[in-house]
Amino acid sequence: MSEPQSNIIRTQAYIGGVWTDAASGKRFPVYDPASNDHIADVADLDLDEVRHAIAVAQGAQKSWQAVPAKTRAALLKDLYALLKEHREELAELVTRECGKPIREALGEIDYGASFIEWFAEEAKRVYGELIPTPAADRRILVVHQPVGVCGLITPWNFPNAMITRKIGPALAAGCTVVLKPADETPLSALAIAALAEKAGFPPGVINVVTSSNAPSVGAEFCRNPTVRKISFTGSTAVGRILMRDSAEHIKKLSLELGGNAPFIVFDDANLDKAVAAAIASKYRNTGQTCVCTNRFLVQDGIYDAFASKLSEAVGQLNVGHGLDGTTEQGPIINTRSLRKVQSHIDDAVQKGARVLTGGKPHALGGTFYEPTVLADVNTHMSITREETFGPVAPLFRFTTEEEAIAMANDTEFGLASYLFTENIHRIWRVSEALEYGMVGINEGIISTEVAPFGGIKASGLGREGSHHGIKDYTEIKYLCMGGLEESN
Ligand code: ADP
Fold first, then answer.
1. Measuring from atom 27 of ligand 1, which residue has the nearest CA?
2. Does 4 score more than 60 pLDDT?
3. Does residue 147 share a domain with residue 22?
4. Which of 66, 142, 234, 416 is the most buried (most CB within 10 A)?
5. Nearest-5° Cα angle at 474, 473 to 477
6. DSSP track, 391-404
7. 47 with 180: CB under 8 angstroms?
8. Is 202 in the same domain as 251?
9. pLDDT interval class at 415 (50, 70, 90)
10. DSSP letters of 442-454?
């Protein structure tokens, strides 16, 4: 049953410390989106096997939460060291599965590992409270206890970091986990499990269920009362399904959903810094991150200069296979996503937008797409409301600060936002007025393990990273100790 343990490539699921094939013998294929090469076939579990994994996680829950925080922290530190040791292999796997340039993939592994390191440290700091009492014969205490078995569902765009950002705090808090990775990128997830096994996590604490049927695994996580919390990163549409299906058992939910990030450039912005940040925020991972800018809102006075500098720089981005070290933009994940990108551009152009650069599939073929900049975009175009999730920068024009704030907030989403201005008063006014969970001020890349990542409105619930991140995996318990005598 078990595979050779010589490297980090695994194609079996991981349940209760055992590498497991589907009883049915079924497997599903994994492809390289850049070359369409078939990379591997991975165990395709059925629902009974997912239920078994949940039961196994429950079996390990009591003993795992009894492990002293310092010991849990030490295991996480060992996992961190192994992730760093295998940095290159893990990055290559990320590039092969999701297409991002190897430089970005290496960055993802460092970012992913940082959550394991951070939560190894935080494991020891889940402090309780002693609250001043209103009655002399009472003492009031608060403790934070692990929530229990967690069902984790992760997307393909950060095949490593979206997992570490969930298992880090869950394990640190004393929860056991059942992880369902995206079926496009299961190998990165299984590689983390292989390293966790090597680090010595007890069997059953970390379980990875691979399946090509995400909706049925999601439904099982929601309907199975043993799963006490679901943490999901993905689309708002699926987040809604999980929230609805979790209502029966009133589960704890962390939802990191879609965004529609505005990037506001005021006349008094530093143009070069704004252009550099715009490229970093828009084109990394081929525009396929939930915090990628979706709308550039640019003030009249700087609009033309920003448009020409941005389109010139974007026109020079090097498109290619992610494993080629010179590549700056890889492919789009699949043809369905490519079609959405094209439809947003076609809709905008038909309604009057101008293509400054790009605008069509790349000569390399497959799902490669030209990095694109569109000018004269207006709010009647579908790109205004929907997340494009591709390498397209639409430039909207505005005149006043109030107008920019109103445009920025005119969306159901509220994940990341960005503003560029050298005016300190405006920085505060606009930052406070933006209805978003995160605001980048003269900064296009804001993700870090030390800060709370997450959104408001239809962008989700809960926060990942920072000292807030671990609390989402705990329940508050209040202890009231009464009848204390003042004299003996
Ligand atoms: P994306 O557009 O990023 O693929 P999805 O929300 O479709 O966003 O997918 C994110 C994760 O959710 C993936 O692991 C996917 O397999 C999973 N998923 C998709 N549909 C469902 C569903 N109905 N229930 C649970 N998980 C789902």
1. 214
2. no
3. yes
4. 416
5. 165
6. SEEEEEEE-SHHHH
7. no
8. yes
9. very high
10. S-S----TTS-B-
Q: Find the catalytic residue in 150, 290, 370, 387.
A: 290
Assigned domain for 400 exists: yes
Q: What is the pLDDT of residues 186-195, one digit of tens each?
A: 999 999 999 9
> Residues 116, 182: one domain?
yes
Distance CA 161, CA 110 (A): 9
**Secondary structure string (H, E, C) spanning 100-151:** CCHHHHHHHHHHHHHHHHHHHHHHHHCCCEEECCCCCCCEEEEEEEECCCEE
**Domain annotation covers residue 488:** no
Confirm whether 290 is a catalytic residue.
yes
Is residue 485 situated within a structural domain?
Answer: no
Domain of 164: which CATH number? Answer: 3.40.605.10
CA 455 to chain centre: 11
Structure tokens given for 62: 């009591």
Residue type, position 383, single letter: I
Q: What is the CATH number of the domain that holds 364?
A: 3.40.309.10
**Domain match, 338 and 386 both:** yes
- Ligand 1, atom nearest to 337 Cα: 2
Atom 22 in ligand 1: which residue has the minimum CA distance?
215
What would the pLDDT profile of 271-328 be if each residue is shown by its tens digit? 999 999 999 999 999 999 999 999 999 999 999 999 999 999 999 999 999 999 999 9
Domain range spanning residue 137?
A: 13-257+455-461+473-477
Number of structural domains (the chain) is 2
> Is residue 447 included in any domain, yes or no?
no
Short-list 282, 352, 265, CA closest to 317: 282
Among 89, 87, 241, which residue's Cα sits nearest to residue 153? 241
DSSP letter string, 66-81 = HS-HHHHHHHHHHHHH
**Dihedral, CA of residue 388, residue 391, residue 395 and residue 396, to nearest 10:** 10
Q: Is there a single domain that holds both residue 55 and residue 119? A: yes
- Among 238, 254, 256, 285, say which to mutate for ligand 1: greatest number of ligand atoms within 8 Å of CB: 238
Q: What is the pLDDT of residue 488?
A: 81
Q: Residue 238 C-alpha to ligand 1 middle, in angstroms?
A: 6
Residue 163 and residue 132 share a domain = yes
Mean per-residue pLDDT, 331-359: 97
pLDDT digits (tens, 9 = 90+) for 17-74: 999 999 999 999 999 999 999 999 999 999 999 999 999 999 999 999 999 999 999 9
Is the CB of 241 within 6 Å of ligand 1?
yes
Let me know if 401 is a catalytic residue: no
Q: Is 394 in the pocket of ligand 1 (CB under 6 A)?
A: no
